[in-house]
Amino acid sequence: MDQALQHLVNGTVLGGTYALLGIGLTLIFGVMRVVNFTHGELYTFGAYMAYGLVALLHVDFFLSLVLATMLGLALGALIELVLLRPMRKADIDSVMLVMIGAALVLQNAGLWAWGGVAKLVPTPFAGTPLVFGPVSVLPLRLFVLGVAATLLLVFWLLLERTRAGIAMRATFQDAETASLMGVRVGWVHTATFAIGSGLAAAAGALLGPVFMVSPAMGDLVGLKAFAIVILGGLGNLPGAVIGGFALGYVEEFGGGFVSSEYRDAFGFLLIILVLAIRPQGLVALKERVG
Amino acid sequence: MSAVFGWLFVAAMAAVPVVFPDPYVLSVLTSAGIFIIGAISLNLLLGYTGQLSLGHAAFFGLGAYASALVSLGFDIGIGFGLRLRLDPQPVFVGFLAGIAVAGAFGWLLGRLAFRVRGAYFVVITICFAQVLRMVALNWVELTQGPMALIGIPPASLWLPGQGVVPLYTKPQSFWLVLGVGTLAFLLVRQVVQSRIGRALVALRENETLARSVGIRVTHYLVIATVLSAGIAGAAGSLFAHYVRIIDPDVFLFIYTVTMVIMVITGGKGTLWGPVVGGLIFGLMPDLLRGSAPPEAQWIAYGVLMILLVMFLPRGIVPAVAGLLPARRRPAPAIAAMVEPAP
């Protein structure tokens, strides 16, 4: 029982960052119909920016998290303007291929720039876990969960309460009608991709210090982001949050009670199962087609 | 491209080991040939059914592992105190097993994944390869996990009068790959020119319309996947017996991406596309070797892929064919299919 409680706590921490990753990816798909293969690379980018700022430039840890997120936003905007804007009329498969090409470039540029050795990001947090009865958790992880939850809340407020958010939701529902109503769809796309990328970079900057930072760290994470989004239904924002936590718990409990070696495989098996039994995703309402 | 040109190409290739018996050149050509076979099989899905399957390395890896394990033999526990044991078999049995196992998984994936389309399909195919990689990494009793399967015997061929001959030398391996590649090409050509191929193209162009004229969409998609997986399994088997060591990295996404780039560059949905693209990308790494680090090479791949999709979306072969003097071409299959009955 105590062990289960511990797994619950770990799963929640993991799920928070997964939700951040998933919500960015699903937003980009929902608004732009783009399957974003660079998402995992943006995550890696965020982690390396945090590393570079903290370890090499000795910037304050908390400030560098903010800066890493901002740099992720900027890189996302750049990718949208250079690659996606000219491809707006292209079919979804061609765009996917372009994004795979971009992911190849980003990953190998990272490998070239930083080398293949994994890096450790120093943090101001104590290495001794906080103990609450049967459960113990590292202060850093608690901080990560807190920031992830805050970012999710800020993102939700942005979407619900601001004009930009309304424009984004309108484009999400019907791009053509939105543009007739005076929404500048092009800029909504740029903003969406930038925000989604910024969230991925934030997730990377947050998890980088928890684990190690390495050039290939985005590979598995990018695929997991897809898993999260498929679980919730592509383009479904609450679904991505639920999917993020679902994946966090499945990995944590599966890894703890079934097999730790297959920990990373549970997510993928879960997707295959979900698609076999309920192809529209766990929380999606309408039937999926193309 | 005409059949005469095709046979000339095969003959020229077959003469390479005689005219130019450099072991380095041959080994580069042999590995390029193995990936060209993979690209030919991927083209059947990507080019003719229009389904962007990004788990193709799964079939390649399954073929490699199945073939290697059958020819090495294994002895594993399968639960309930039972053991499954297989003595080492001749390599050609392994080769057939590689094709069969990959084809069987192709059927499974097809049944499962074609319930959905578009982005969902793509993600399932990627996950499929990932799960297999995890299994290969962790089922150490069977696959040796990250320690890799070593000592895989070289390919062998049964020749009349000489019995089973192991193919140790570079020219022999090259000819084997060329032979299998030619067979794969002919098989794919046969399929796409048959009723199955016409059905595939019809549903690529307009699935709803194809369904309305009575084409059993899932049925044909599964057939294409099984064939494609089987050929990819054959390529994987050749790979295993050629490099003679395999590890779970054969399931990596990057191998799928390599094959995708080959097909896209050459021209998806054309018979010669994967061959042309495969020659370019199969030989380029070795031409660049020494002059650029591998990261730079991958960056170049990525940039090239972006530029091709943006500016030459149909690939090299259709672009070159467009420059050649126009000949009478048969009407596209879709036009033939939707013609009103007299």
TrEMBL record, chain A:
CDD domains, sorted: TM_PBP1_LivH_like
GO cellular component: plasma membrane
Domain of life: Bacteria
Location within or outside the cell: Cell membrane
Sequence intervals crossing the membrane: 12-35, 65-84, 96-118, 138-159, 191-213, 225-250, 262-281
Main location per the UniProt record: membrane
GO biological process: amino acid transport
One annotated GO molecular function: transmembrane transporter activity
Pfam families tied to this protein: BPD_transp_2
Membrane-related topology note: Multi-pass membrane protein
InterPro entries (UniProt xref): ABC_transp_permease, BCAA_transport_permease
Sorted UniProt keywords: Amino-acid transport, Cell membrane, Membrane, Transmembrane, Transmembrane helix, Transport
Family: Belongs to the binding-protein-dependent transport system permease family. LivHM subfamily.
Protein name, UniProt field: Amino acid/amide ABC transporter membrane protein 1 (HAAT family)
Organism for this UniProt entry: Humitalea rosea
Phylogenetic placement of the source organism: Bacteria, Pseudomonadati, Pseudomonadota, Alphaproteobacteria, Acetobacterales
Automatic annotation (TrEMBL), chain B:
Annotated localization: Cell membrane
Transmembrane spans: 24-46, 58-80, 92-110, 119-140, 174-192, 213-239, 245-264, 298-324
One Pfam family per UniProt: BPD_transp_2
Keyword Manganese annotated: no
Keyword Ribonucleoprotein: no
Alphabetical keyword list: Cell membrane, Membrane, Transmembrane, Transmembrane helix
GO molecular-function term, one example from the UniProt record: branched-chain amino acid transmembrane transporter activity
PANTHER family: HIGH-AFFINITY BRANCHED-CHAIN AMINO ACID TRANSPORT SYSTEM PERMEASE, HIGH-AFFINITY BRANCHED-CHAIN AMINO ACID TRANSPORT SYSTEM PERMEASE PROTEIN LIVM
The name this protein goes by in its record: Amino acid/amide ABC transporter membrane protein 2 (HAAT family)
